[in-house]
Amino acid sequence: MIEHIPELIEAGIDSFKIEGRMKTALYVATVARTYRKAIDDYLTSPEKYKENMDWYLEQISNCTYRQFTTGFFFGNEPGQVYDNGGYVRGWEVAAVCDGYESRTAVCSQRNRFFKGETLNVLEPGRVPYEIVVKELFNHDGEPAESAPHPMETLYIPLEKPMAPGALLRRKR
């Protein structure tokens, strides 16, 4: 429905429910952030909203992909897709930032990632950005080549602060 924000707003809708039950934290964070930006862009300038449509669609497809429909909003369209119920996920959460201290992000590992890998960061209120894991340290402060243990505390030196709760995602 992100392509129909103007119709929704013009219909008087002023509160949107983003599906989240049985979805990953990555999905919920990405979709909620993308809809927030699309709504703000439309209210600022309908032209800006139109110009950014490819970006909105790309962001949503980055967290999960299943054929999207408009449900039954426009009447007789198929409200559900029965031929492909599975998800294809191109991204996964590598870690969650727990804090930032001494120019270092303190993170909890979720899926294995490696030193040298480029991670995409989803931070509240910011456009997604990338970091390269140039150095990685395990929970004992020892240098590490990878993050193989789920929920392990890891340290990633970074020049710029990272907000607690930021999701670090990696391409599968």
Note the total helix count.
4
The termini sit apart by 26 Å
The Rg value, from CA coordinates, equals 18 Å
Order of helices and strands: HHHHEEEEEE
Content of β-strand: 15-25%
Q: Main beta sheet, described?
A: 6 strands, antiparallel
Q: Could you say which overall geometry the principal axes of the C-alpha atoms support? A: elongated
What structural category arises from helix and sheet content?
Answer: alpha+beta
Side by side, the strands of the main sheet go 4-3-6-1-2-5
Low-confidence stretches: none
* Topology, number of strands: 6
Q: How much is the average pLDDT?
A: 85
Range of helix content: 25-40%
Walk me through this protein's architecture.
- The protein is built from four helices and six strands.
- A hairpin with a 6-residue loop joins strand 3 and strand 4.
- It is of the alpha+beta class and 172 residues long.
- 25% of the residues lie in helices and 21% in strands.
- It has helices at 5-10, 25-44, 46-51, 53-63; strands at residues 91-101, 104-109, 118-122, 129-132, 153-157, 167-171.
- Helix 2 (25-44) packs antiparallel against helix 4 (53-63).
- The model has no long low-confidence stretch (mean pLDDT 85).
- It is elongated.
- The protein has a six-stranded antiparallel β-sheet, covered by helices on one side.
Q: Any descriptors?
A:
alpha+beta, six-stranded antiparallel beta sheet, 172 residues, 6 strands, 4 helices, 25% helix
Topology readout:
Layout: H1 5-10, H2 25-44, H3 46-51, H4 53-63, E1 91-101, E2 104-109, E3 118-122, E4 129-132, E5 153-157, E6 167-171
Antiparallel strand pairs: 1-2, 1-6, 2-5, 3-4, 3-6
